[in-house]
Amino acid sequence: MTSADDSGSQPVQIVVVGAASRDIAPDDPRGWRLGGGVAYSALTTARLGLRTAALIGLDDQAADAHELGLLRRAGVEIRSHRLERGPVFENIERPAGRLQIVHSASDELPPEALPGSWAGAVAWILAPVAAELPDSWSTRPPALAVVALGWQGLLRSLTAGEAVRHIPPAPSAVLARADLVGVSRDDLDPAVELARLCRLLH
User: Fold this and answer.
1) Residue 116 and residue 193: Cα distance in Å, rounded?
2) Is the Cβ–Cβ distance between 163 and 127 less than 8 Å?
């Protein structure tokens, strides 16, 4: 189910899409904080002065998260899409790199949830955290739009109760559509060769 939380009067410049994660946080009264690339990216672009819209997948617990108010106050136009299962992670920082424990994977966020009034945006950020964006998202941005992809969410295997496992980088329609790809060393198995990444990105 999709709900419109806000409606902007000016055309949207950039659309950000993804599921918001709930990241385990013992010092928060809820036991978690809202996170994920969709939230951080939307907040950043809005604070940079771009008219930003975000399609955010949210599970029941995250639907009323106070962090969504922070996005709205920054000027983000939000359309929420309710997920039966949303991504939940426990992040453990170590000298050898971050360890993530999966508490829940995510349902898909369908392209049909996108408001029609956003379809003409000139810039897009596809920010999956749990493989929630199917390849059909590759055809949603206009042909001349600039598309950025947060590759992280397409590079891991998620099983509840287990650590996140890296999966080898592979071609996909979403990757092929991207003009800009963001990825960090924590998203990749150390054995992945740089030459292989370059072949996929050219």
Assistant:
1) 40
2) no
- Are 174 and 135 contacting, i.e. CB atoms less than 8 angstroms apart? yes
Q: What is the pLDDT of residues 113-164, one digit of tens each?
A: 999 999 999 999 999 999 999 999 999 999 999 999 999 999 999 999 999 9
Has this prediction a pTM greater than 0.85?
Answer: yes
N residues, the chain: 202
Sheet holding 52-58, edge to edge: 2-4, 77-82, 52-58, 14-19, 123-126, 146-150, 180-182
Residues 6+ apart with CB under 8 A from 36: 18, 19, 20, 21, 87, 127, 129
The amino acid at residue 51 is: R
Cα separation of 8 and 21, whole Å? 25
**Which DSSP category does 94 fall into?**
-
Residue type, 93: E
Instruction: Identify the CATH number of the domain defined by range 2-200.
Output: 3.40.1190.20
